[in-house]
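Before going further, learn to read the protein records used in this course. The integers have meaning only within a learned vocabulary of local backbone shapes. The record below shows the convention in full.
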Amino acid sequence: MRRIYLAGPMTGLPEFNFPTFHAEAARLRGLGYDVVNPAEHGFIDGYEWADYIKLDIPQLITCDTVALLPDWHKSKGARLEHHIACELGIIRINAADIREPAREAVPA
């Protein structure tokens, strides 16, 4: 587990839940992980839900792990991201369960 994608609820939440995403990204980066945080693109004027998903899915598939934020299962987007991860064999884990520092890749 080296490159982690954060998945969780945004739609309908205060500040789109960006503070939660940013805090978790900072925590995981502090442990040495490369984190893809979909909240970092921020709010884009004129974008709808599908536009954001079209930005996020290409990022997700570059990751080897999806870290699930609290209440992810209540989010249509996070459920879709989870489904894609399942179908592609990408590891899924609750973000809070990641406590160990990232390990350096061992050459084959």
